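Example record

The entry below shows one chain as it appears in the dataset: sequence first, then structure tokens.
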Amino acid sequence: MKKSEFLTLWEYATNNLAEYFSARYFGNGAESYWIADDIGGVFVIADYFFNLSDMVDFIKHSYSKEKMFEYYDFALKEHTEGRVPTNIKNYKSL
């Protein structure tokens, strides 16, 4: 397989994951897009911002919609106050 084919597959899979995340946590039809069309960078959904790693972790660790928003607010507050928040994997067990 050529490099361009791998990249095309990665972009396809990444877009599918982002669409799944958007539908799971925000419902179908929520406005969403990659900032600057940079697939795998920062994904915006209804004025919320997510990186690919966080989206993967929320799905991987079976976060409910409520717990995902709870963590999002927690992490935002921690960053605002100059602290590094507990990671998504460990937050659920607190």
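Notes for this example: The mean pLDDT is 96. Residues 3-26 form the longest helix (24 residues).
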